[in-house]
Amino acid sequence: MNLIRTIKLSFVNLAVNKFRSFLTMLGMIIGVGSVIAIMSIGAGAQSLIFNEIASFGTNLVGVLPGGGEEDAPPAALMGVVITTLTYEDAKAIGDVPHIVAVTPYSNGNANISFGDKIKNTSFVGVSSQYLGVEENRVSQGRFISPEEDESTARIVVLGSEVKEDLFGENNPLGQRIKIDQTSFVVVGVMEEKGSSLVANRDKEVFIPVKTAQKILLGVDHVGLIRAKIDDEKNAPFVISEIKKLLLQRHNIKDPKKIDFTVQSMSQALDMIGTVTNALNVFLGAIAAISLLVGGIGIMNIMLVSVTERTREIGLRKALGAKRKNILSQFLIESIIITFIGGLIGVIGGIIFAAIVAFGVQYLGYGWDLIITPLSVILSFVIAVVIGLVFGIYPAKKAADLNAIVALRHE
Question: What's the half-sphere exposure (Cβ side, CA atoms, 13 Å) at 214?
Fold first, then answer.
């Protein structure tokens, strides 16, 4: 009995019990499909985060309140309120060489009203250099002036969506709105920016940072300082100079007691990449457990098959079939099941990942469909190996049957 004939016979035996063969394959289909889909979705989510952050520009340096480990996220990102950064720190950072624009941020939420229209949204206290840092533009009116940086002026620039909600097609310039109970004059409207994972600038309003601090929040600190540098290659020098400056301004002698964190956008991307890669591996490992479950299913079904085909095995042995022929017969059947199941799983995983990617893209996010050859090949090879490993015991049991005992089996 040669190999080709054995393979043909294996297909015939599997075709006899189509439904059982499909149920046996199902574990491999789900396992392989899950691994590919999860790895693809993880890579797509990573690309989405990278694209969103990179949209701010790679030549940005951020200063967050609170120190931390070298490669650990700052405490401020964990929701901890830290009050170590000030508006004056931001002004001083603006004098560092290679910095072309800098702005502090002081954020909050409030009810914004005009007449009988009320909208709950975010207000952002920034300086006049905000447009240079984030490269936003004003579509109507003007932005905050340098003179208003130093005052508590009650002026506001509306995000495009806030303008539509409160004023519709009417001109908002010069109108008075209320942020909570404080009256502000509308001096400008921002261009439509669109939503992102980080924030939806169209739903925000912008006011002078000192107005946000003193009038609305009642604080002296800022939540973030962001600076734009002239060239990304100058980021290491700028980061070093900012650290020296703030250590001096905060009167910190011991660098271990640093109360701020300075990072470039590229460093932030590297940190996020490390975290998301670890998460992808973890999720892939969990999905791979279903491959193991599928292998156990194959072993169980093949053991049932051995029992049902005991007389057939005895007859073949009586007609001269050797132990290796019976062993190879059942091993090949097991491998065929996992091969076909793995192939269907690959196709199904890719289709599912593509549906997710196109669905997210339809919602307006920059999600990339990423199917790595490694995930396809690795999951497929593992599936076949698992089929081989879990098929050995049933095949060995079939091969070890005594011909006479098998023929007498009812």
Answer: 11
Evaluated on CA atoms 364, 198, 129, 114, the torsion sign reads positive
DSSP assignment of 102-165 equals: EEEEEEEEEEEEETTEEEEEEEEEE-TTHHHHH---EEEE----HHHHTS---EEEE-HHHHHH
Give the per-residue pLDDT at 404. Answer: 59
**Percentage of the chain modeled with pLDDT above 90:** 30
According to the model, what pLDDT value does residue 307 have? 63
DSSP string, 20-71: HHHHHHHHHHHHHHHHHHHHHHHHHHHHHHHHHHHTT-SSEEEEEES---TT
- Beta-carbon count within 10 A of 128 CB: 19
Interhelix angle for 310-318 vs 265-308, to 10°? 70
Work out the average pLDDT over 277-292: 74
Contact between 43 and 266 under an 8 Å Cβ cutoff? The reply is no
C-alpha distance from residue 395 to each of 47, 112, 316 (Å): 46, 74, 15
Cross-strand pairs, 103: 226
Q: If you search the block for the tokens 């490694």, which residue do you land on?
A: 374
Q: So where are the chain's domains?
A: 3-53+271-408, 83-258
Distance CA 334, CA 345 (A): 16
Distance of CA 165 to the CA centre of its chain: 31
Mean pLDDT over all residues of the chain?
Answer: 81
- Quickly count: other Cβ atoms within 10 Å of residue 243's Cβ: 17
Position 148 scores a pLDDT of 92
The separation between CA 121 and the C-alpha centre of its own chain, rounded to angstroms, equals 26
**What are the φ/ψ torsions at residue 36 (nearest 5 degrees)?**
-65, -45
Most confident range (mean pLDDT) of 136-140, 183-187, 305-309, 347-351 is 183-187
- Number of C-alpha atoms within 13 angstroms, CB side, residue 93? 31
Contact by Cβ (8 Å): 180, 229: no
Residue 141, pLDDT score: 94
The answer, yes or no, to whether residue 23 has pLDDT greater than 70, is: yes
